Every structure is written in structure tokens, then in C-alpha cells.
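Hi support team,

I submitted a single chain yesterday and got back a structure, but I'm not sure I'm reading the C-alpha cell output correctly. Could someone confirm the output below corresponds to the sequence I sent? I've pasted both exactly as they appear in my results page.

Thanks,
R.
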Amino acid sequence: MPQNGTDSELLRRIAEALERLSPAPARTARLDEADAFSWNAEKAVLEPVAEVARVDLSLIKGVDHVRDLLLDNTRRFAHGLPANNALLWGARGMGKSSLVKAAHAVINAEKPGSLALIEIHREDIESLPRLMALLRAQPRRALIFCDDLSFDHDDTSYKSLKAVLEGGIEGRPRNVLFYATSNRRHLMPRDMMENERSTAINPSEAVEEKVSLSDRFGLWLGFHNCSQAEFLAMVEGYADYYGLKVDRETLHAEAIEWSATRGSRSGRVAWQFIQDLAGRLGQGLD
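Hi R., thanks for writing in. Yes, this is the structure output for that exact sequence:
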């Protein structure tokens, strides 16, 4: 039989070996380490983003009114003044997510280091309370951004978002604002809402909880399909910004043909046309 001292030494060596084999605990980044982060819900950590994929605010055309509203709201928040959570909803490809990222860049250029942009993925919304708790103790202000937010049948994760935005005992941290983009104004599919109205004993109360989720956003910004003139203005803006060598008549004719083959006009379609045009011209878009 081994002695007690030998037993203790063996156990100590085993414990040390296990510690060396086990991965180090994940360390969440501090908000002063970068201007943008991605929320890793599985590890419950913030991961710095070295370079945000975004376009210059001047290239986002046809949404002047909502652009100014979002900029003003974001600017007030950065300066410690009251501001609203914002829902950017409407037509696809009209610059909803681009506007959020561009507004963040503009405000940080005006007031360096004032805002951290944190992206949370739609499938991680249930972890939002953990993220809020982590940010509550941070001195820096944070703009949480969720792109393409919506909820489908039997999806209850919207309750986490609803509680965090305004409800709960603690409420939303003063240093946190939430921006979301969606193709749906009420974040729920229409057939889901209509089905609940038709089958409920009290139809108005049946959908009140789901519809009221959108009411938690104090700022609703609608994006609508653009006209041909607005579409061509987008194309011209990109062409001028990147110095593409093409005359206006050719640019307009090819852009109109491109939008016709796609069956739509939007900022996204304009950008896709510019990428095709630049490639054919042998010019870069750096």
C-alpha cells in the first residue's frame, strides 16, 4: 500500500496534468480594445472585429430622412442624452444594415471612442440578457446591432428581447442601445398573427404580446423600394466614388438594363451592378 504522502503527491501531479490539458477559460474583450465586436454566445465573450465591412455614409442614397433621424438618435446617445432603440424595417437591399454601420462610423469620427458596435446574430437573441449584464458594468457606451431580425412560428426567443428592451427589474442599461433591421414591421409573419386572431377566444389579446414587441422600439424607420431616379443616383454615387471611367449615358443605360434583369431596384442591386461594371472595366474597388 502506498503511503499517504505518496498518495497526495500522485493526486497533485494528476491535477496539474489535467490543468495543462484543459483549455484556458475564454477571455472576453474589453470595450476599449476595439470599436466593433461580435458576440460569441456559446462562449459568452466579445470578440474584437478588426475591420467592419461598411460603406461610406455618402453612398447611401434615397433614404435621406431616415438617415438623418438615425444619425441624430445615435449622436444623442453617444453624448449621454436620452435616445431610443431603433427598428429599421422594410424593403430588401435598401441600406438598412449599411446605414447602422455607417452611422456608427460617423459618430465615432465626430467623437472618437464614444461608441462600441456589437453585432449579435439572430439565433443568439436568447443570450441577450447575458450580453446586457456584461455591458452594464462597462464605462463605454455600446450599440448592439442585430441584422435581419424576425421570429417564426413557435419561436419564443422574442420574449428575451422584449424583456431586455424595456422590461425586467433592472431594465435596459443606460450605456446600451439596441438597433435591429428587419423586412417585417412587426417582426412576426402576417399569417401567424392572422391565425392567432382567428382561433383565439379573445383575438386582440392573443397577439398583443407579439405585436407589442415592435412597440419596444421607440424609433421606427421605414425603407421603401426606390424609384429609377434614386437608383441611378446610387449608381452614379458609386461610380464617382470609385472613379469608374464610363460616360453617364452608358452608365445609365447599362444600370437600367441590369435592374430590369434583376426585376428590382435597390442599393444592393446598384452595388452589384457597380461590381460587375468595375470588373469589366478592369478597375478595382479599393
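A quick pointer for reading it: The CA atoms of residues 166 and 172 lie 6 Å apart. Let us know if anything else looks off.

Best,
Support desk
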